[in-house]
């Protein structure tokens, strides 16, 4: 299957215990730092990680009595030469494989929500992914506290403003933070404006 230009992946997790946004942001940050520039930045507020050429949106949905769902949506930064779709898919696969070491996973959605693979089936199909995925994620996870990802909010807001938002639909809702981002004529508060920019930047990914 030809990878889309904005790859998507999701994890079905049978129990919500230990499923936190910070854990999966750090996981994505480790991979993007290794594979795209060496200095990825993460934001709890935006629920995203940005590297030299790429951004990954992380969303968590907890379902009472059914566990949790974690999604990863990858997009390109505007104005930077981006990897080809296959390379982007390999980077995303590395994120998924690493994330799978943090929690029990019952199924993996790959490239689109309708394609669901058993964890072992996914691992077998991704043998071409870089062996760097074997690095101890728990070690990376413990290197910083959750406040560390909050310290880069301003940098991420600047990065997200560089993203092409031309065809975004301002009225769409997103994930577990389902909010309406209707146009306010530029009168949004600074914090709300940053979140709106991020939401619109990644809304294009879902349409791929």
Question: Can you tell me about this structure?
Answer:
Residues 196-208 have a biased composition (Basic residues). Residues 135-162 form a coiled coil. Helix content is 35%, strand content 18%. It is built from seven helices and seven strands. With 208 residues, it is of the alpha+beta class. The two termini are 14 Å apart. Strands 2-3-4-5-1-6-7 form a seven-stranded antiparallel beta sheet, sandwiched between helices.
Count of beta strands: 7
> Count the helices. How many?
7
Q: Mean of residue pLDDT?
A: 70
Overall CATH architecture of the largest domain: 2-Layer Sandwich
Number of domains: 2
Q: What fraction strand?
A: 15-25%
CATH topology of the largest domain: TATA-Binding Protein
Give the topology string: H per helix, E per strand.
Answer: EHEEEEHEEHHHHH
Main sheet properties: 7 strands, antiparallel
Keywords: Coiled coil
Region (Disordered): 162-208
Biased composition (Polar residues): 173-183
Coiled coil: 135-162
Write the layout of secondary structure elements.
Blueprint: E1 8-13, H1 21-35, E2 41-43, E3 48-50, E4 54-63, E5 67-76, H2 85-99, E6 107-110, E7 116-117, H3 119-125, H4 137-141, H5 147-150, H6 153-161, H7 190-206
């Amino acid at each position: 299957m030809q990878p889309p230009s904005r790859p998507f992946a999701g994890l079905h997790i049978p129990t919500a215990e230990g499923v936190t946004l910070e854990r999966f942001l750090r996981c994505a940050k480790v991979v993007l730092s290794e594979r795209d520039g060496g200095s990825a930045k993460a934001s709890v507020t935006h629920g995203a990680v940005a590297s030299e050429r790429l951004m990954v949106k992380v969303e968590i949905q907890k379902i009472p009595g059914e566990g949790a769902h974690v999604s990863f949506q990858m997009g390109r930064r505007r104005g930077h030469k981006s990897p080809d779709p296959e390379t982007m898919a390999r980077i995303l696969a590395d994120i998924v494989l690493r994330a799978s070491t943090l929690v029990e996973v019952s199924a993996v959605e790959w490239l689109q929500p309708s394609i669901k693979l058993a964890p072992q089936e996914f691992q077998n199909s991704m043998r071409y992914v870089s062996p760097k995925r074997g690095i101890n994620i728990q070690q990376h996870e413990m290197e910083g506290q959750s406040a560390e990802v909050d310290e880069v909010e301003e940098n991420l807001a600047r990065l997200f403003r560089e993203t092409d938002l031309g065809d975004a639909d301002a009225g769409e809702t997103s994930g577990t933070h389902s909010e309406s981002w209707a146009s306010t004529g530029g009168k949004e508060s600074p914090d709300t404006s940053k979140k709106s920019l991020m939401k619109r930047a990644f809304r294009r990914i879902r349409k791929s």
